[in-house]
Write a structure and sequence with these properties.
The chain is an alpha+beta fold. It is built from 11 helices and 15 strands. It is globular. The protein starts with 11 loop residues before the first strand and ends in a 13-residue tail after the last helix. About 45% of the residues are buried. InterPro entries: Pyridox_Oxase_N, Split_barrel_FMN-bd. This is Pyridoxamine 5'-phosphate oxidase family protein. It holds the Pfam family PNPOx_N.
């Protein structure tokens, strides 16, 4: 990060102990939900998924995040540990890469980390290393699948176009580029890519009810880090490698804001207070020194029609993602220490209607957690994740 001005570079968290003192440590159950291959449930989800966030570094080491896909089943599963897809963008990926897969209308996402195995033209083959289900909080915070504008016209399944807010940015820098500030002011959701000390890639969803990231000046963004499952991969990665990239979305639009830069973690009370919801500030924030920012069209988003209500996945047509996470937890519990007994998890899962009851309990927990964060307009039952 540049400079020493406290308004630009507030107090930083620079060690894992400092991060865990603020965020906490994840429960054993959280880490046990991660598996190393795509099982039948994951493959069923990918067959219905039309779009994914994708983070990678190119041959020059430049960090990039974008959205890929365009049609359901765009990822071809060759084996439980190998997939391929088309990435026509220049500057092809090298080494570790990461995805999260979005199902329109669904709260949870499927996260997949791996490494590029082959690249021929646009065809990109990836060896899968890590797979897990990510909770619905980012989707719910952002209301990603809810139209921000007036009611849809009966003649169109697409969302209405909402004017960008008029935003004036002080100074100069990448965030002063045409269209960037206005787009970001309307963006409620983004994909954030970071890399760990070994070069491993991780792309995570971030969402907020208003702007998901706020401009401090022409070169600086701040992104709130609200409470979650305490896994905090992004924060731990930034302690080792401060380079990051992100791709931000405005629900209902087909454009994407691409940002690259360097990030630090802060718990500065004055800065966090500016992002408080009903008096509840986030526990931390990312301050990003922006090196590049650009709004572009995104063909996969346009072709996926992810904003159209008729593309939203109907209940029961794909596995419930949290039930899938439970299966992963059960499989790992049989060979791990410190987690719940595998026999108990299997017994609970075998109870008739257990999946539905678990979903109802989880949805209630989501709503309770969001209210504690300061959200006073939590989605009703019809908008629950599936």
């Amino acid at each position: 990060m540049r400079g020493t001005d406290d308004a630009v570079t507030p107090h930083r968290l620079t060690t894992a102990d400092e991060v865990e003192a603020v965020v906490g440590r994840p429960a054993a159950m959280v880490m046990l939900k991660q598996v190393d291959a795509l099982d039948e449930g994951c493959r069923a989800l990918l067959a219905r998924c039309p779009i994914a966030a994708f983070g990678y570094r190119d041959a020059h080491g430049v960090s990039r995040t974008t959205f890929v896909g365009g049609t359901p089943g765009f990822v071809r599963v060759h084996s439980p540990t190998r997939v391929s897809f088309s990435l026509p963008e220049p500057g092809g990926p090298r080494g570790p890469v990461s995805f999260f897969f979005l199902l329109p209308g669904v709260g949870e996402v499927l996260r997949v980390n791996g490494a590029v195995a082959a690249r021929r033209g646009a065809a990109t083959t990836v060896d899968v290393k890590e797979v897990w289900v990510h909770c619905a909080q980012a989707i719910l915070r952002s209301r990603l699948w809810q139209s921000p504008g007036p009611a849809e016209s009966p003649a169109s399944a697409e969302w209405p176009v909402v004017a960008e807010p008029a935003v004036v940015v002080a100074g100069d820098g990448p965030l002063c580029q045409p269209g960037v500030a206005g787009f970001l002011a309307a963006a409620r959701f983004l994909a954030l890519s970071t890399w760990d000390a070994r070069g491993g890639s991780d792309t995570s969803p971030r969402g907020d009810r208003q702007a998901v990231a706020r401009i401090l000046d022409g070169r600086t963004l701040v992104i709130p880090d609200r409470r979650g499952n305490r896994r905090a991969d992004t924060l731990h990665n930034l302690l080792r490698d401060d380079r990051l990239s992100l791709a931000a979305l405005v629900p209902g639009r087909n454009g994407v804001l691409h940002v690259r830069g360097r990030g630090v973690i802060t718990d500065d009370p004055a800065l966090l207070e500016t992002m408080a919801l009903r008096g509840t500030p986030p526990h931390a924030a990312l301050v990003v020194d922006v090196e590049h920012a650009e709004v572009t069209g995104n063909d996969p988003i346009a072709r996926s029609r992810m904003w159209a209500g008729d593309t939203h996945v109907a209940r029961g047509t794909v596995p419930d993602l949290m039930a899938l996470a439970g299966e992963h937890l059960t499989a790992n519990a049989a060979t791990s220490r410190g987690g719940p007994p595998a026999f108990l998890l299997k017994a609970v899962g075998a109870i008739p209607g257990a999946t539905r009851l678990m979903r109802l309990a989880l949805d209630r927990a989501y709503r309770s957690g969001l209210r504690k964060e300061g959200y006073d307009d939590v989605p009703p039952g019809d908008d629950r994740p599936r």
